[in-house]
């Protein structure tokens, strides 16, 4: 038996970090780590709750947290986020309440969408996080339309559109990339390539060597980024966001990550993943890579890390307790929000 | 009042809405310099510029997806699908996204989008320039479906659609774009949704129809009148929301119904109307409900006049209804 590959450390000097992330790099990295801690705790707890039958479904994002946190660190409060399947952490790190999100996961009456969607499909307009469907890829062309509207109204904000490697085969990725480039829209297309679309590996998804190079066909700059490296993610996203904001146009970033959990609570990856996948994934665990860097730089130690973990655990448990006590959706909510209220329609007879 | 054709009335409605509200913009294929292949957007590009009258790449899913994104932000896009036969690449965006955004976000993300598209046969357009897909969309909760049949309604219903905070599919009867002209109010003119129009009054049989079938029904009604049968023509105007009260009132009076549409019969919109009558007008009916529709085939090129409901077929069905009771 060969030893599993060792964790690949994040190796940055203080000077390089200041250059890549700006003067408050240390504060950014600590904040990023604390959000990633929360995400780890949340995934662990919610998968367990799903197993216990306390929530119906869960879609974890373990292994992909650096992309979401990097995004939250790279945009301003007025920018817009169109999530893919695993970007709920972007909403939380932008200020969406954990308790409100928990109401959504429990599909109760205090969920802003009244429990209408499966868990992990939150809507959070207060942080400009757009409602998503389960239909893969549709958000890409929508995000481009919103980006067009930003420029039309002379709003200096930008849009980020997230989608997976599987989504790079879907109609709206291609339509969206093309429209974005033709319109020179202020948007960054963010492909989170976790190398799987349920059981289908990325080699079966595309014949190109990278997903980033698909930008060439549309006249979009495309770049592949190590999505398990929070420093690289943040640095490259900030550059792409600055480019979009200044009128320089859209771009495509491919974040290569490793899916470290089943596709969802309904999936059994032992049917299709080889035994060494998880070992390779663990060597690129974005959370442990950042933890190592923080320790090396003296920004974290055993004590602070366990404090942050306990804090996350406490806030997740508190949110669960609140949501679990909330009533289920009122029956009337079945038929509200189909159309605007009081829209002058004749009352149904 | 100005005498206009349907397509001119639509053009007026668009221009006036755009003058009144800078958040209204138009996007689609060839809608810009060319003014649309049917000229519905003629002059808009010149008046409002390329940023507001957008010639898009050729992708219907892109057009509707982008229109949704604009609306999520707060604009009021009017997307043109050049022929409704080409709407299917956008079916996913319409059915899965546009129609469901308000519901799935608990009202956080309404979609103020109008989709305009010419529909229907009679222009020698073959399979792919002739279809009437209204039933697919009427079946989808969260969408309103509107079909005008007169120039005045074309402008009035379009204006209401543009002001509606929810998605509206506005289907334009292209066969009568220029065939019918009539007086259209100048300036702000809205026709409310959910109010059918009695296109012709009558006491013996009700013809339920919409769009390009209205002139055909009126013609049939004239033939019937010559033999002493008075047909009432009810123009539904909006399929969603449906004016049930107007339908039931007419049927209470006549006791006989012929439903007319171009789309195939099986699971067509007429099936819903027939079900409504069975549920709510059963005791008013003197005769079985008749349907005169397209056939359950694809839309044919050479035989389109055989396929499309004609005044003769409607007259025949109406006489059968009268003979039955
Ligand atoms: C249009 C569509 N087809 C199929 C599915 C079922 N499905 C859900 S997720 C998924 C794989 C998505 O892969 P990817 O885009 O890489 O995202 P990931 O799950 O890896 O984050 C599939 C096939 C779907 N939701 N939508
Ligand atoms: Mg994937």
What does this 3D model show about the protein?
The complex is a heterodimer of chains A (349) and B (325). Chain A is of the alpha/beta class and 349 residues long. Chain A has one domain (14-263, 277-325): Rossmann fold (3-Layer(aba) Sandwich). Chain A contains 13 helices and 7 strands. Chain B folds into 2 domains: 2-184, Thiamin diphosphate (ThDP)-binding fold, Pyr/PP domains (Rossmann fold, 3-Layer(aba) Sandwich); 197-324, Rossmann fold. Chain B has helices spanning 6-20, 44-48, 60-73, 91-98, 101-104, 134-138, 151-163, 213-226, 244-254, 269-280, 304-307, 311-324, and strands at residues 2-5, 24-28, 53-55, 76-80, 114-119, 144-146, 168-173, 181-184, 197-200, 205-209, 231-235, 238-240, 257-264, 290-294. In chain B, the strands form 3 sheets. Chain B has a 7-stranded mixed sheet, sandwiched between helices. In chain B, strands 9-11-10-13-14 form a 5-stranded mixed sheet, with helices on both faces. A two-stranded antiparallel sheet of chain B has the order 1-8. In chain B, helix 1 (6-20) runs parallel beside helix 7 (151-163), helix 3 (60-73) runs parallel beside helix 4 and helix 8 packs across helix 12 (311-324). The N and C termini of chain B lie far apart (44 Å). The model of chain B has no long low-confidence stretch (mean pLDDT 98). Chains A and B meet through helix 6 and helix 7 of A and helix 3, helix 4 and helix 5 of B. Bound molecules: thiamine diphosphate and magnesium ion. Thiamine diphosphate (TPP) is lined by residues 85-86, 134-136, 164-167, 194, 196-198, 263 of chain A.
